[in-house]
């Protein structure tokens, strides 16, 4: 009967009596574990605290470093379908030449002086031969100073005080051809003047006053001389 009672109630009562000591037991176990762990650490040396005494003539080798691995193989281009990958052309930039800034050593161009106009070989001299009250007789002496015969053209322009032309002629030579354009009177030679010779062109004009000088006189485009 006692064994049965112990089985039914003795274990429970013993367990209830030992519960207050359970935390102390656990704490003591933890303390023993920590003491054991600390002892193990003290007995085993720390690799960082190990010191190596230097030996004369002996140098520790430097730690080996892994070599950098370079791959010479180009990455394979991705192929989509049957098209080949696009290849971009490479361009080489050519050097740009800058213009030289050296001063020019050439002397400045000197303009050639213009040659003087050639002296005309056919010239004319104007004069009033015979002045009258209401008219006058004038002359243009045409002279050829060249080495060959030459034609001539005499052109006269008079001011308003000189009136109409009465007559004109070439003395001792073929007669000239007369034409008029406005206030200009133009005579063209009927025959060339021989080299070194002269042809006197004479004319008679009506006028008022005593004037008989023309406002313009030319022979072959050159101004006349006056006497």
From TrEMBL:
<keyword id="KW-1133">Transmembrane helix</keyword>
<keyword id="KW-0812">Transmembrane</keyword>
<keyword id="KW-0472">Membrane</keyword>
<dbReference type="GO" id="GO:0005975">
    <property type="term" value="P:carbohydrate metabolic process"/>
</dbReference>
<dbReference type="GO" id="GO:0004553">
    <property type="term" value="F:hydrolase activity, hydrolyzing O-glycosyl compounds"/>
</dbReference>
<feature type="compositionally biased region" description="Low complexity">
    <location>
        <begin position="92"/>
        <end position="108"/>
    </location>
</feature>
<dbReference type="Pfam" id="PF00553">
    <property type="entry name" value="CBM_2"/>
</dbReference>
<dbReference type="InterPro" id="IPR008965">
    <property type="entry name" value="CBM2/CBM3_carb-bd_dom_sf"/>
</dbReference>
<feature type="domain" description="CBM2">
    <location>
        <begin position="113"/>
        <end position="227"/>
    </location>
</feature>
<feature type="transmembrane region" description="Helical">
    <location>
        <begin position="21"/>
        <end position="43"/>
    </location>
</feature>
<dbReference type="InterPro" id="IPR001919">
    <property type="entry name" value="CBD2"/>
</dbReference>
<feature type="region of interest" description="Disordered">
    <location>
        <begin position="72"/>
        <end position="122"/>
    </location>
</feature>
<dbReference type="InterPro" id="IPR012291">
    <property type="entry name" value="CBM2_carb-bd_dom_sf"/>
</dbReference>
<dbReference type="GO" id="GO:0030247">
    <property type="term" value="F:polysaccharide binding"/>
</dbReference>
<protein>
    <recommendedName>
        <fullName>CBM2 domain-containing protein</fullName>
    </recommendedName>
</protein>
């Amino acid at each position: 009967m006692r064994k049965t009672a112990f089985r039914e109630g003795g274990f429970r009562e013993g367990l209830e009596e030992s519960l207050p000591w359970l935390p102390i037991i656990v704490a003591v176990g933890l303390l023993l574990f920590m003491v054991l762990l600390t002892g193990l650490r003290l007995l085993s040396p720390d690799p960082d605290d190990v010191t190596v005494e230097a030996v004369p003539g002996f140098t520790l080798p430097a730690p080996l470093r892994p070599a950098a691995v370079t791959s010479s193989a180009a990455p394979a281009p991705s192929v989509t379908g049957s098209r080949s990958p696009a290849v971009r052309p490479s361009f080489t930039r050519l050097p740009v030449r800058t213009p030289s800034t050296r001063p020019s050593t050439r002397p400045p161009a000197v303009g050639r002086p213009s040659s003087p106009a050639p002296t005309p070989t056919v010239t004319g001299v104007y004069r009033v031969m015979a002045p009258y009250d209401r008219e006058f007789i004038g002359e243009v002496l045409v002279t050829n100073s060249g080495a060959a015969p030459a034609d001539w053209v005499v052109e006269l322009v008079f001011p308003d005080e000189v009136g109409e032309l009465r007559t004109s002629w070439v003395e001792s030579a073929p007669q000239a051809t007369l034409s008029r354009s406005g206030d200009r009177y133009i005579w063209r030679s009927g025959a060339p003047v021989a080299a070194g010779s002269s042809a006197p062109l004479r004319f008679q004009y009506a006028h008022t006053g005593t004037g008989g000088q023309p406002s313009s006189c030319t022979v072959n485009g050159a101004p006349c001389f006056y006497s």
